Amino acid sequence: MLTIRLQRMGKTKRPSYRFIVSENHRDTQAGSLEILGYYNPVEKDKTLQLNKDRVEYWLSVGAQASATVHNILVKEGIVKGKKEKSVYLSKKRQGKLAAKKAAAAPAEPAAPAAAPEAGMADMHPDQQFLEYVVKAIVNNPDSVRTTRTVDERGVLITLDVSPTDIGYVIGRQGQTVRAIRTLLRVVGAKNNASVNLKINEPEGGRRAPRPMSEAPVASADVDTSAIDNIEI
């Protein structure tokens, strides 16, 4: 296929070009069928000389203009249509440009802190802490309720959860609830308060039964021969 394209001439960093007609598969420096004009983008006035009649002839016989030449012809009014994309960047080059653009862009302001849940804004820090921890480990966080009371012995927070979540709050052998109580005491110490936790176990709450330390021994299996002959 014949193509009207640019052949680079000139010196290093001062290029000039020829408009040539050549086979699409051949190198632009390997010769051409015809030279149609000249283009020097380095000069101040960007010299452009183009044989309009010969360009129109080659286009009429099926020659195709390259994207760059097409855009020049559109600008000069030789052909009608929209300009085409003439610069194609490799994925590697696109990645470098994107990274450079991101580095030059001003840093985005930090996102505002999430607003506290409705009702938690009025809670004391120890009560907020307890609800936050418990809601994170249960399956029904909407069922978590706390009540905070203060008397001469200190602070008492009463916790209510869904019956199906009581096991998550207690934990294996009470490890989870002990950890929560320890953390509550730390939070209370920061506010010069003694904080205790009470959990209302709802009916139907599922807790693992405590393992029996020893199995009961049947009376028939006990050896009583040593005391059978003792007279009382």
UniProtKB/TrEMBL annotation:
Gene Ontology process terms (BP): cell wall organization; peptidoglycan biosynthetic process; regulation of cell shape; translation
GO terms assigned for molecular function: RNA binding; structural constituent of ribosome
Keyword Ribosomal protein attached: yes
Keywords associated with the record: Cell shape, Cell wall biogenesis/degradation, Chaperone, Cytoplasm, Ribonucleoprotein, Ribosomal protein, RNA-binding
Stored InterPro entries: KH_dom-like_a/b, KH_sf_prok-type, KhpA, Ribosomal_bS16, Ribosomal_bS16_dom_sf
Keyword Cell membrane in annotation: no
Chief location bin: cytoplasm
Localization of this protein: Cytoplasm
Stretches the record annotates as Disordered: 199-224
SUPFAM superfamilies assigned: Prokaryotic type KH domain (KH-domain type II), Ribosomal protein S16
GO cellular component, one term: small ribosomal subunit
NCBIfam families: S16 (TIGR00002)
Function: A probable RNA chaperone. Forms a complex with KhpB which binds to cellular RNA and controls its expression. Plays a role in peptidoglycan (PG) homeostasis and cell length regulation.
Family from the record: Belongs to the KhpA RNA-binding protein family. Belongs to the bacterial ribosomal protein bS16 family.
Subunit field text: Forms a complex with KhpB.
Name of the protein in its database record: Multifunctional fusion protein
Protein species of origin: Candidatus Magasanikbacteria bacterium GW2011_GWA2_56_11
Gene: rpsP
